[in-house]
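Data availability excerpt. The first of two example chains:
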Amino acid sequence: MFPPKGWFFLQPPKYRIPSVFDLHERGLFTTMPSVTRKSGACLVVKEDLQVSIWFKYITEGHTVRENVSYSYRVNEGILPLKADMTLDDQALADIVESDAREEVLRIHAEWYRSYIPMRADNIPDRPELEKKLASSLNEGKKLYREELKRQNNRWIERLLGVKIWKYKKYIHPLVSDELFSDYRKQGGEDTEEGLIRKVQLFSLVYDTDQQDDLLKPDGNHWGSEGEMWDCWIAYAGSELEAKRVCQSMEAVFRPLSASLSN
């Protein structure tokens, strides 16, 4: 399961997700779900390098939705850390479930000991910490994008062959010289065949209609336009390459579209 929108996992994969994080997004259960622990927590970070602890825990609680009675629910929250990366005592006290509080304390203590660079006076080294957080943020983005790619790869690969065949037959003869030339002028290093594949991957990821609530060809929905962009970056290989391919498509396909419509 992904972290909340705008946040990225800070810890390496083997430490980041207790089983409680793998539960479905609705978070309601008629019976106690099978998990290794009833509570879980992990460190997450935002673009501004704000670090927080994302926690979840399962409790008993009667809920009726669409005539179905649920006896268990997943509660969750985000506990921002203070500027010195310590816990806010009041925010911690607001977590009513004692097991969840203990899990937050445990995860924070392990992370603080192993992650925070310290000065000689045993105070966090802020410049070094920010470098480390920025590096972790980039790694978190990469993990998030690769997970998006993994989740969508089955339907994308199923449709990709036909998309490439149609493109080569009808469109590529009209733009072959300009498209690859523009791409190479911008610093692109992929082969022409690789570029064709990326163009069609972009076409598949963005094959949706805003009025259809970002409906995918497989019948599911994208979470947001940002999610679509991150998935496309994963297929392109990097954000720089994703932008480069988009710029080449803009430079070549837009004039082509205008000429064909006249």
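And the second chain:
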Amino acid sequence: MSSNIEYSIKNTTENSLVVRASINSFNVDHVTDKDIVSFYRNFSSYALFDTGLMPLNGSGVLAIRSAGNHTQITFQHEPQINHINWGQSEGDLNAKTYTVAQPYRIWIGDLVDGNLLGARMFYSPYPITSPEQPLYHLNLPNTNCKGYRGTGVGWQCLYHNADWTNLPFNEKIVRFAERCSGVETYNDANMSETDGPRFYRENNFPLHVWDPIAWQEKTSVDGLNWVLDSSQWMPIFVKDQDNQDRHYYDSAESPNAVPLTIQMAMLGNYKAYYHDENMPKPVNIFSRSDLNFDSNKITNWLARSHHSSTLIDKPVDSFELSKELRLKDFFKTPTSSAFPLGGQDIDDNSEDENQYVTLICPITGNNCDVHESEIFNDSESNNYCESCFSENVVYCENVDNYYNTSNQSVLFIDNECIYIHKDYAVTESCPNCGTLHWENTYPTMVTETFDIHVVNAFERLQKKVFLDSNIGKICITCSLPTNGIKSISNLSIEQPF
């Protein structure tokens, strides 16, 4: 396991400082040196960082909180009259853009390994200045109000459609704000649990809060100031800080339901996406006296940092990276994307209606009116609308193709966060931690059983020495976690003597 690896700072014969990882196997020492500056750079990305609520006038970042490979960003946007795309269903030809007033919008986003995992959105009639301020429900579709697949209240239905790994952190905040700004089309054809307007209607709020036409008329007559009246909005009640998956009414189920405050929303247990396993969030374990931190996680981060480090440090200039990204965006030629960020162009009256087709969705069985450029296909030639494709079809790394998750051959590899087609792979679980490892056999389908030798990553990467599986197996998740290494299949065993 990683606890068997010794880390030390050494001065080499070239008179340079390195971080050395050493492990003894069969009385032979295996040593790996990494530049100390490169190690510092990588380990810093796992560091504990918690700003708390920062002073803010208007729009901007309220808090940045991070530990390990998880980061929480809280953003506030000042009251504004916005344009919101609103359709009755996916690809609705009669969808409209409404001009409506909104109060302060509070967004809480979760990044894991540098990518957006999920986002929650709330209203507030006042700027957030205190941890005790309550949050209010959104009056928009696609938002968790009554509980949806375990996600936290306020959860937004945002697709995982971009890789942010190589973006500088400031650009990730920009992209996060863009994703939550309303640029992506809302539609009413969703689960009742994620329907803010009907939730407001069920709770007897005025017509202009839950009907987009009346909302636009109210904005046209009264402008912006009316949204700052707290009586216009419904405060969120939860069972307690760690049970905030939906709105809880004062009932036998939750006789002591309490208002959800910004502090509870940030420090409590919540799922940022269906498969969010960070419960509680790492940074919250450091913040709350009622939680205990597993020190093995730090050993894990130390090992990952050492593995990601290089022999010679490479400087990274975030300012230059931002300039390059802005230039690329400026000169980018608009192209169609399999995962468009901004929804559909629903107000272009010159659009040729002949470019829209009706397809039977293989997931819901419903008829969907979809633009020809926004039909998505899996490897079995099934046609999907955008939302059904994004929710139910996954990319299998080993065969470079898309498959429906209902396919029994689709397998999720937890330690790498990827999907594979198991008919073109051999797999083996680590007897120590249960991690599933795999080796690719594509394009040849597996017809016989192979052995995968789950070995120590140092020996695989540095010394090319492999342990006999009968002597003992040490998987890379136990000894040196990394997404970039797989197990070994059908390789000859070289003895380390």
